[in-house]
Write a structure and sequence with these properties.
Elements lengths: L1 E5 L4 H12 L3 E6 L2 H11 L2 E4 L5 H10 L5 E4 L14 H28 L4 E5 L3 H4 L7 H18 L4 E7 L15 H7 L9 H12 L10 E4 L11
Parallel strand pairs: 1-2, 1-4, 2-3, 4-5, 5-6, 6-7
The structure holds nicotinamide-adenine-dinucleotide.
Nicotinamide-adenine-dinucleotide (NAD) binds next to helix 1 and helix 4.
């Protein structure tokens, strides 16, 4: 089985690629960062391509040339936290372009592969932010709400290809490491019912389940992998 992981050069995407490789999948990483891609794909021994998911022509070319694909993991995502009264519109446009249009471009361009696979599936990476209504997130949370809506819509449109989403909570990655410096990590961990900040592998294990035969009757679902953070708070 062959999976394409977008934004796969580091963090959650790379962890998905590592876990799937460990259970026998063939992986192609795509990312816009060539240096990181070369390093990660060499460590993993997998194929890679430099693709910016917001560049439709580049995405189309990639999927027209690649070997048959069974699963697409739409993981590439960015965030530009800003308040409504202090917005940089270019930043926010970029968030929509990567998180929503990037996911749309990749899924649409991969359809001919997913249709011909005997077990085609898509996993979109959303965020707990889609349902926590936190201030100061610019369009990030809204972009992930869009992803959750599209996950269900596409599950209806393209069945029997399965489409699910995984919504991570607090996960320490190269992209979020600044949030976990010094005492901040322990403080954040205390808010999580499970009692720790998540690791990329926590997400990868659930993504691997969702693309597997074990999840062959699971589609249109949003799975929150957040240590219980979205269920409420342990502090009264
Ligand atoms: N880390 C968290 O706490 C957390 C929580 C909720 C959701 N998420 C989501 O998980 C996904 C991965 O997050 P992460 O923390 O691993 O991020 P990260 O910043 O560590 O890695 C993201 C990767 O995506 C790549 N990328 C960014 N824009 C791209 C583009 N236009 N085209 C191709 N590649 C691009 C980057 O080069 C990078 O390699 C994102 O969608 C993010 O929104 C993360």
């Amino acid at each position: 089985m062959h999976a394409v992981v977008t934004g796969g050069a580091q963090g959650i995407g790379l962890a998905c690629a590592q876990h799937l490789t460990s259970i026998g999948w063939t992986i192609t990483l795509i990312d816009k960062d060539l240096e990181l891609l070369e390093q990660s794909s060499s460590d993993l021994g997998c194929q890679y391509a430099q693709v910016d998911v917001t560049d439709l022509e580049s995405v189309k070319n990639f999927f027209s040339e690649i070997n048959p694909v069974d699963s697409l993991i739409n993981n590439a995502g960015i965030w530009r936290p800003q308040n409504l009264e202090d917005l940089d519109f270019d930043d926010q446009e970029e968030v929509l372009n990567v998180n929503v249009l990037g996911t749309l471009f990749c899924t649409s361009s991969a359809m001919h592969h997913l249709r011909t696979s005997s077990a085609g599936s898509v996993v979109n990476i959303s965020s707990l932010a889609a349902r926590t209504n936190s201030p100061g997130l610019g369009l990030y949370a809204a972009s992930k709400s869009a992803i959750e809506t599209l996950t269900k819509q596409w599950a209806l449109e393209i069945a029997p290809i399965r489409v699910n989403a995984v919504s991570p909570g607090l996960i320490e990655t190269p992209g979020t490491s600044g949030n976990y410096k010094g005492a901040a990590k322990e403080k954040r961990a205390k808010a999580v019912p499970i009692g720790r900040v998540g690791e990329p592998s926590d997400i990868a294990k659930v993504v691997s389940f969702l693309v597997s035969e074990a999840a062959s009757y699971v589609t249109g679902q949003i799975v929150y992998v957040d240590g219980g953070l979205g269920a409420g708070t342990t502090q009264r």
